[in-house]
Amino acid sequence: MTTNPLPQSPLLDATGVAKNYGAVAALRNASLSVLPGEVHALMGANGAGKSTLVKILTGAIKADAGRILIRGQQLDVRSPAAARRAGLLPVYQEPSLIPDLDVLSNLRLTGTPVEPFRAWVRELGIPDLDIRETARHIPLAILRVLDLARALAVEPDVLLLDEMTAALPANLAEKVLAVVRRQGEAGRSVIFISHRFVEISALCDRATVLRDGATVGVVDIEPGIEERIVEMMLGTRIEKTRVAARAANEAAVAGGGRPRLSVRNLQLGTKLNDVSFDLANGEVAGVFALEGQGQDELFAALAGSIRPTGGSIDVDGAPVKFSHPSDAIQAGIAYVPGDRAEALAMQRSVRENIALPFSAAARKWGPIRMRREQVVVSSAIGRLQIDTRAQGEVQRLSGGNQQKVTIARWIAANARTILCFDATRGIDVGTKQEIYKLLRELAGQGKSVLFYTSEMEEVQRVCDRVIVIFGGRVVDTFPVEEADEAALMRAAYGLPRGARADVGILAEVKPGSSAEAAS
Amino acid sequence: MTDIATMPQPVSFGRRLKRFMADRPLIPLIILLIVLVAILQVLRPGIVNERWIANTAKFAIPLAILAGCQTMTMLTGGIDLSVGTVATMSAFIMATQIVNQDPAVAFLLAMLPAVLIGLVNGIGVGVFLVHPLIMTLGTSLIGTGFLQVYQRTVIASGARIPDFLNWLGTGLTYGFPNALFLFVPVAVLIVFMLNRTGFGRLLYAVGDNERAARLSGVRYWQVITALYVLSSLLAGITGLLYIGLIKAPSLSLAEPLVLPSVAAAVIGGTSIFGGRGGYTGTIVGALILTVLTTLLTILQMPEGGRRILFGFIVLFVTAAYLRIIEDR
Asked: Is position B224 within any domain?
């Protein structure tokens, strides 16, 4: 779309950037070149290295190798302040105003000129901001817009926006996109990180695609390009797609009858929108989503940690309203968080951790029947094959064994439904396999599992069905046979199933914004 | 195979000793207690006899029960600074009400402020999430104020120490202080509760990781409210025991025990950050503090110097002890 007659020299040019964390290569060979006046999309699946590259560019972390040129000058961005001086300013997903200060003090803290800031705030669609308001009392969506206004007010050469429109209501998002577009027209550059093709098509001139820590392509944005971008994000993995055969599968689907869990039109602020699905008895239903698409909130609502603002949840056909995790547990729904530190009392023994739910209700505060508890706990330990050599304190166990303890707790409690949120994150392959096997066995016994994962291959290994969430909505549901990685990836980016390249989603963009995109 | 992998390298005696003590945290405390008693015996030959032991136990018991309140609240990451006021209130009310009331009624009246203050503490900490330090300090001040108001209404009627409390506080049976009749069941109950009941488990779990407890279905406010009521009840009972020992009802009767009760729990190995500790260590901690007080009294130092030394010793002992047991 940018048809520059003469080749411009890039404003920002990063090449061969690499970063290792111990033995893990977060970035191997990333490059990013941004022309003046360009809005440039940075894309990649979860774990491709986007955030590492962003952190390096903005000076938050130091690269192990690579060269970063700004306006042709080699630059050593050692700190966020240095990046700022070089004219590179990020707006992150998390609001960056200090909560206990008012807006004005926050501006003074960063030396931001006030009048331009006010002008940008008005421009971005907030006419009545009280600059004396304490940041804590300002809603999240507005805070993000203020962050953007603050960045715009210092007129950076390169503005870096990380999922800028996430959590914004539609009217604000539109204003934001318009302002970003005009930045490009004013000769400044924007690096735009987003999972939303609609926005990218409306805004961006080019896109750099990362995969496994390396830049795999730079493309011009034009209708139909999204298929190619998805292909690039997947790489060769498209070929090795296969459907795992599972014996337990047929038995599971045959369970039938009333669904165990039935979610209808679930609403949660701007995070979840009209989410509906069923979870059958004897089923492992996968949930696949890019980061931050509302899956955290969905699981939290089902686990009773937060209250949805609308919609209904039915358990075995009866409507429920959870106000505390104990309500969900009462209904036989257990939540296994991905972060083990969230679920374990680290200084306590394996046994106490597993038996914790037994004592939770006030009527069970009395003497513990130690022998019976011992039997239940050791059977759960045996079932998960937890290595109990260091069982005195859970913190002395390996990560995999700790994760097993969090699951064993609910096996011992005989929970009928387990909500597994990325439970295999950061544990060894052997333990992962054991957990997959266990989840399949549970389904075989008529239990049900809702399994969120950020790793596509896990869907194939454990799930009967997969629900894909994008932007707080269920965008697609498919049986595992059709859930190859390409299909999953497309769905996770909100692309309709079966869309052909020539009638891709970019062709559907409403005329106004596509005209802007074409300019 | 694993045997070879984990075969211990030859370790120095010092390290092995530390390991040993780390696994049995009570042993270094008991050794310290014995050392203190030995020093006392050297300084004043013949002082350590049956009578001295009974006397030490009598003074250590109220401290140990109040330190039990601190142990339980500290396990959840809290603290209960209102125990001194609660003990004083129940003692004072008991001593003044017994003059005109039936003993049972006087007892119930004496325990009433304990329950109320415990309830307010528990709701403040558990429901409104006020920091326990502030919450219990606040209720402690309020309680003291109420007690001053109450005192004016009973000046005319005077006060009396009930015979039963006299017997419990200072009496001996076969050389054993009668206070043990109260203390032994209380101590057994606390130890049992912490180790073998659901409630005890929850105290540890809540103090270790409140979010994990919540995800396991634990309702924080219930646990905390019950805990602070229990702590206050124990403090109230301690007050009754203490008035039988001191025999002079005053408005600051048990106040001097508050900070030593915290110190006893800390010396006994309970972490103020929650999740770690137990009551047996606390009992030994209370004994250590009591013997230490005797020791410093015997040295015939002026009060100021005694306090300075006391403070330093508490700091030193706690730091050294934590270094020993946290060797991992």
From this structure: yes
Task: Report the residue from B201, B218, B222 with minimal CB separation from A352.
Answer: B201
- In a mutational test of the B interface, the residue from A299, A305, A348, A349 whose CB has the highest number of chain B CBs within 10 Å is A348
Spatial CA neighbour of A83 closest among A37, A136, A35, A14: A14
Residues of the domain holding A472: 247-332+416-483
Provide the domain count of chain B.
1
Q: State the total domains in chain A.
A: 3
Measured in degrees and rounded to the nearest 5, phi and psi for residue B134 equal -70, -45
ipTM of the complex, rounded to two decimals: 0.85
The Cα of A301 is separated from the nearest Cα of chain B by a number of Å equal to 12
Q: Is B15 inside a domain boundary?
A: no
CB contact under 8 A, B199 and A356: no
Position B35 in a domain: no
User: A371 and chain B: CB distance < 8 Å anywhere?
Assistant: no
Residues A276 and A187 in one domain: no
Chain A residue with Cα closest to B206: A345
> CA-nearest residue of chain B to A343?
B212
3-state secondary structure A252-311: HHCCCCCCCEEEEEEEECCCEEEEEEEECCCCEEEEEECCCCCHHHHHHHHCCCCCCCEE
CATH of the domain at B319: 1.10.3470
Distance (Å, whole) CA A275 – CA B101: 67
Beta strands in A124-205 (DSSP E): 158-162, 189-193
pLDDT tens across A284-304, in order?
999 998 877 888 999 999 999
Tell me the pLDDT tens digit for each residue of A470-491: 888 898 898 888 888 888 888 8
Size of interface A-B (CB pairs under 8 A): 93
Q: Residue A31: phi, psi to the nearest 5?
A: -140, 155
What predicted TM-score, i.e. pTM, was given to this entire model? 0.79
Is residue A92 located within the same domain as residue A216? Answer: yes
